[in-house]
Amino acid sequence: MAFLIRRLLLTLPILFIVSVVCWSMINLIPGDPATVILGPEASEQAKEQMREQLGLNKPLVVQYVDWLDGVLHGNLGESLVDGTPVSQLILQRLPVTLELALGTFFVSLTIAVVAGILSASNRGTWIDYLSTGFALGGISIPHFWLGMMFIIIFAVNLGWLPASGFEPFFQNPVANITAMILPVLATGLRESAELTRMLRSSLLEELGSDYVRTAFSKGLSKRVVVIKHAVRNALIPFVTASGLQIAGLLGGLVVTEQVFQLPGVGRLIVESIEQRDFTVVQGAVLTVTVIVVLINVLVDVLYAVIDPRIALSKE
Amino acid sequence: MSERVAGEARTQTIEPRKRRWATLWRRFKRNKLAVVGLVIVVILVLTAVFAPLIAPSDPQAQDYALTLRPPGEGGLMGTDSLGSDVFSRVVYGARISLEASLISVGIAMGVGVPLGLVSGYFRGFWDEWVLMRVVDSIQAFPFLILALVIAAILGGGLGFAMIAIGIAFIPNFVRITRAQVLTVRGLDYVEAARAVGAGNLRIMTHHVLPNSLPPLLVQTTLAMGYAIIAEATLSYLGLGAEPGEPSWGSMLFQAQSYLTSAWWMAFFPGMAIFFAVLGFNLLGDGVREALDPRTYD
């Protein structure tokens, strides 16, 4: 419990800095933000109105405090393009991104656990070469390109799955799932590569340790030794790695959503950047990053649950 | 007196350090995959340098009579929607990719290494409670989103994309340098240098930094590969190279609208990215393995 509280307290400075970075985004636009947002041909009056709307005329500290006060009350400001509340735009898009992220996470974890265990417990055989080769290739592939190749192969040539045409799950579950298969596979395969490498090397380390030799000399079968003894310990660093992976994964989904035309938060960020709608960019980036920070806390807590030594050493 | 002793100490440390690089090379050479990685990277560099000699035509030349020709019919890799030769564009793309990764990793190292060095060497409040907490916070942002937003704030274009990727990479280099400095600063030869009167600056630049380099080398190589993907991604999203420029990422952006009719427009630039990144990854892995004392024989 003390560990949990300490861990939560440690995230406060991080959340503070994250909020400052997101808030300062608009102030960091080189030159006059109002001119950049409205374009050089806008009238002086319109620019002044924009500065007023963004609160740019107030002292910096006041601007930040006002903004943070809004954020803490769920008010992320309004879109500069059509005045829609930013929080509403994000809430519309978030389910798509979360569905994609969860699917990707599930696929990558499944592949990584199977490939990692098979590879480490059959070291030096063709199974090992195959899965290490797969992992090495996987980390070098830009996953949005893999997505494009999947579209060419499975949607254009074979016609098995649609290349786009997302529909919300509760409106049309079948269309939703078929539209999600290719993006989830493309990102999941790519993400599993790093995790496979990670699990393989930590499992190999465990397999070389004394307690494994003892287990073997007791006459236990390879299956029992690997699954019951070695994998349990090898999973400890793996949990952290897969948790950290989520940050990268959420970033990567920005491009996946673009390739497959999925209306998620990533695409919202890209669209808003194109329209110079910086309040939406600010709110969306803040939301995604806060989610990442909270997941990291969760991973750390989970880590302490799996391995009680961690919580004890940190208290 | 102390000058003379310090001079002697230096001549003593140079030999083993030289020998260590030689050992590293010997161990690296034995790893076949690492050598493959090195060969790929060398080919990439040569392609970038000699692009005008290798490419059969101007990568920006457009010929509307020759649009969307498949490979074979329209050159080695076909032609794109504007009638440009895909092979020539892929060849010139090596230049942009390499340049982008060199500049962005250069920026990240130029800022990250000194910060990590000073911070890890002096420790204290600024290190623990300011710099490292900022690094933690920046790393909480998904890398691509961070690079994307910085590029957007700066205004887009290839130059700003490189700077954005570089800035987003800084925390990694701070962290790795600092971790290494923390290990090295407590070692005997650092104590010895201090005992003979070497100042902080001298200890940092002559003793701590050179001995922290090997893990940084691994990080730099892997970062080069990742920067290639990042540049391609930003260009694909329209925040890097302009659509006309022969960047692998902007070629993929252009190809997106022709996935149903011209697979080659997407296939070849993507393969180029894949091999370039694979080269750097194999090279980085090779260096890491050569450095790992657990694999010593």
Short description:
The complex is a heterodimer of chains A (315) and B (297). Chain A has 315 residues and is an all-alpha fold.
What order do the helices and strands come in, and which of them pair?
The complex is a heterodimer of chains A (315) and B (297).
Chain A: H1 2-28, H2 33-38, H3 44-54, H4 60-72, H5 86-121, H6 126-140, H7 143-157, H8 173-207, H9 210-217, H10 222-259, H11 265-274, H12 278-306, H13 308-314
Helix pairs in contact in A: 1-12, 5-6, 5-8, 5-10, 5-12, 6-8, 7-8, 7-10, 8-10, 9-10, 10-11, 10-12, 11-12, 12-13
Chain B: H1 2-30, H2 32-49, H3 51-54, H4 86-122, H5 124-140, H6 143-154, H7 158-184, H8 188-195, H9 200-236, H10 248-255, H11 263-291
Describe this protein's structure.
The complex is a heterodimer of chains A (315) and B (297). In chain A, 79% of the residues lie in helices and 0% in strands. Chain A has 315 residues and is mainly alpha-helical. Chain A is globular and about 85 Å long. Chain B contains eleven helices and no strands. With 297 residues, chain B is an all-alpha fold. Chain B has a single domain, classed as MetI-like (MetI-like fold, Orthogonal Bundle). The chains are: A mainly alpha (315), B mainly alpha (297). At the A-B interface, helix 1, helix 6, helix 7, helix 10 and helix 11 of A face helix 5, helix 6, helix 9 and helix 11 of B.
The tally of domains of chain A stands at 1
In CATH, what is the homologous superfamily of chain A? Answer: MetI-like
User: How confident overall, as mean pLDDT of chain B?
Assistant: 86
Radius of gyration of chain B: 23 Å
Order of helices and strands of chain B: HHHHHHHHHHH
Note the beta-strand portion of chain A: under 5%
| Structural class by secondary-structure content of chain A | mainly alpha
Low-confidence stretches of chain A: none
Instruction: State the order of secondary-structure elements of chain A, H for helix, E for strand.
Output: HHHHHHHHHHHHH
Question: Gap between N and C termini of chain B, in Å?
Answer: 42 Å
